[in-house]
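Onboarding guide, step 5: your first structure request.
Type a short instruction followed by the sequence, for example:

Predict the 3D structure of this protein.
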Amino acid sequence: MRNDPHIKVYKYKKLGEIIPYLRDVYHASEDALFFVPGTEDVSLFASLVGEDEYFGSGNPRYRHWEAVPRWLAREAGKTIPLNILDPYRRWMVLQDIFRRERATYPSEIPDGLRKSGFFPFVEKALRYCLREEISPTDFEKTLGCGGCTPEGKCRIPQVLSSWVCVLLKRYREFLSPSGWYDGAAASTLARYILEDTGDSVTPRPLVLAGFLTFTRAQQRLLKTLHGRGFPLTIFHPECTWEYPLFASQEEEMSCSYERIGTDEPFQVVTCVCGDRRVEWATIARQFQLWARGEGDLTPHDAFPGWEGIGVTVASDILPLAQEVLERYRVPYNLVWGKSLAETRFGDLVNRFLKVVGGGWPTRETAYFFTDALVYGDDFPLVHALTIAPRGVREWCDFFRETGLEEKTWKAWLALGGIFRKPATALGILETFEHILREGLDLAVRASSLGKDDEETDRTVWEVSQGLAEIAHTIVSLRETERSFPLTALEYEGGEALSFLTTWLSRSRLLPAPARRGCLTLYVDTPPPFARHPVMVVTSAESSRYPGHEEISPFESAGETLFSPRDSREHAYARFQRLIACGERLTVLTRAIQNEEGKPIEPSSFMAEIFQPSAYLSQKSWGVLCGEIKCSLGEMPGSRERYFPSVEISTEGDAVPRALPRISNPSLDVGFLSDLDDWLECPFFVACRRLYRLRARVRPGVDRLKLGILIHKMWADVPVEAFFNGERLYKNLVDGLHTHIKEVYPEFATRRFRRHRKSLERTLVALARESEAYQCQGGQSPLEDRREYELEPLSVGGVTFHGRCDRVLIFPGNRCFLFDYKGGKSENSRGKRQLAAYALFLQKNEKLNPIGWAYLCHGDGMVISCMEEGRGNSPAAVMEKAHQGIEEMARGIREHQWDPNPQSSLCRTCEFSLLCRKDEGILVEEDDDA
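The system replies with structure tokens like these:
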């Protein structure tokens, strides 16, 4: 290898420090070619060197790394086409390999490889090997098989790990003559092209920027280029951890290093919050306060403008982050394309695929047709659930009898039929698009939704973009129909479903056009050239940094064959590069517990970035210049004044942002309806009963009015209706519109049309259930008490009161209790309210409770407890209720009003802004719980 010219390596800490050097190199030599890690870095690099991003069919001077083989082939004068495999084409290749290998090893294939869900792990392992992260020799030693048989077969096909070797060989056999290549194998393919062409490629200066390190395949290619006389210049982002740019090799490349910039530590502010929702609410509110010259960030730096802020967000938290940012009116641009499966369009298609895969079951199919993009409110859900059709033939009869629009049903039926007969991938997508566009008029249906509700604009955009993505894929497949060898393969049944599912999950929508005056929201990891005056790194938790890697099924015990090499060191380096994206200030945020209330440990790197490093001459990577803390019970805004222009205003009285500490008043009256809330959080009961604060009414359906409407409807149903055999639900539905006009006239408007239909459906379902439970006593009830005021009872010196929605009295002093809930059934599971009512009826009126039921209008479900029912018996639950009442009486008597930050009430508690940290229960003395 030549030692001259040297490889010039410029090491930098801040990206802004190398921009002048990049521009000098870019403009000094028109022959120099620049390579960046990925496609998203191309436009960012163009802005750094002061050029417009290139569009067209020419020969741009900057490319992403996977384009190296095409560049070398063009330089060598080769005419062979070189195309990068798309994820769905990669699926087609692997599917074909599996078909052939199953015929070779019919009984020795592990069961896991027969499932379509195994493909992601197969792809990950293959691409790991294609990047040469493990050498073939080490791979063979790990397997311990001694190589293939003379016939080319595997010696241990029943071992899962050996299938990586089998599939890798077949995968390479397909790629080598086809003119297609995997992006992970770009470096290896480029090296082969360079070795085959000899000296026909003229050396030219190459500049690599943004690479934190190089894979083994990249290192071997750079070694070959260096040996052929290509002048190499590398701009290398460094870290305190001495992670090598090049791994040790037999013959070291000669490099000259030059340090650019200073070693000054980065300014870091930490933000520790109760949970992830509080974390994002704190971030959003601090931004708005900062823009007004207030808040905790103001002392550290001037507000850089929305365009000067970058924020990272984990993909699984993206919906929560968007919801909170929109609520606080924080403008943002999303630098990421959603997969089709994550859009409203993909959700509809995935639900349909489950219906088809399940054989058109009754419940799933019926609820699918009630989707606003299918039939919506026009579909007779109650009638469908009553008749209960199952399978294609019975559903055909159902639609014929009901007289619904046949065009829509026939279109969905045809869409399900494409999986029953063989078809190519192109044929599947063409039929799929034709049915969605022509048969279902999906774009028209989505547009009509936008006229009813402004919130559906995003749905309309996602549906239209989904249809556009289908058209784009079809055009791409048609253009390469002759060059791609597997275009003619046909799929049916599970294979066709798997292809469509893979295409949905791997096809990404282009992000919406960037708007001016917005912060930049990066999903997962930002590109290497991302830089902002202020960078916010969220979820700095142990489960995400150094990075949570999903365990591959190919990994044998004690082996890390397919794990990233030096994963902790590499992850620490990436963590530091995230901090380096903030040129003036970096904010690290984290939550202390997850949605289930389990504690979350901070990232182990949080403390390390503030420790002096010998690599930086005893300076730390970052310096802590400020802290923001927000406990679980303290939502943002409890310390600062309320900004109507910041937070979305709501109707009704707003909860005050600060109140003095609760004075632990003396109280000798309790309410049985408070029992469940008391057991979760006495502070919640104290706020509601003592201060009598009105909760803020959220936009949309008013739960309070809905509850009043439901109670009034049940109360006005004639008691005689049950005794004379008249259907109970008929009276309810007949009186629905009358009660709506009286109690909730807003429901009669177009805006609440879907909610009104949903209310009618749940009323019918609950009325049927109610009639069934009325017969549990074996005889007709003697008495039906509505809104029954229970006789007070004193427990532990506290007098308790209660009011039961409905009590049925049966012969033999037996009784059955009902309570009507406006929410979902999940909120009523395990409640002791009716058990407490039953206990009082037993003690005061000598009645014998045989059970009770909660009728939940949120989802039309019934939660019941009966002597012969499932779960705990009424006697056992009544005993628990008795213990809870005694505990509540003792708490009232002893003035115990402590908040419980771990309570599930915290998610919807309207008094969370009053919940003070010093009144909560600390997990540890040093923990800001």
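Each response can be followed by summary notes, for example: Confidence is low (pLDDT under 50) at residues 53-58, 556-560, 632-665, 917-929.
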